[in-house]
What we know:
Helices cover 30% and strands 40% of the residues. By secondary structure, the protein is α+β, with helices and mostly antiparallel strands. It is globular, with a radius of gyration of 20 Å.
Amino acid sequence: MNSSNLFHPVLAGLSAALVVAVPACSSEPSAVYADTWQAVDPNDPSVVTIERNNDNFWVDLENDDDPNNDVIFHLENGALVFKNEMLNGGMRITHVEPSDQAKFEFTGGVRAMAQLDGKPTEIMLERE
């Protein structure tokens, strides 16, 4: 067997490895965020369910069957983001890798409104 005949199985093996590795890398955000999360604080009943829908993430902040309570987030710099242009702010969910927790926080004007109402502006979540 000459060296060119050996090259084809090696190339085929590398191609097969890439076919498996590339989808695994691209599905990472879904694997990290898509789940049901509950507040770390035992006194906080907050539950957040995140489902991936193509490039968007459906986030149910009430954990009920009413789709009107769902908010559509998108991935931006590794975090899930919802922007409310009218309030110059929104919400962000960031995965905290070492503890496998998620930090849910209000941003901008939405954060200011929560502060004025005396509500928390961020919640740490863990997988349910």
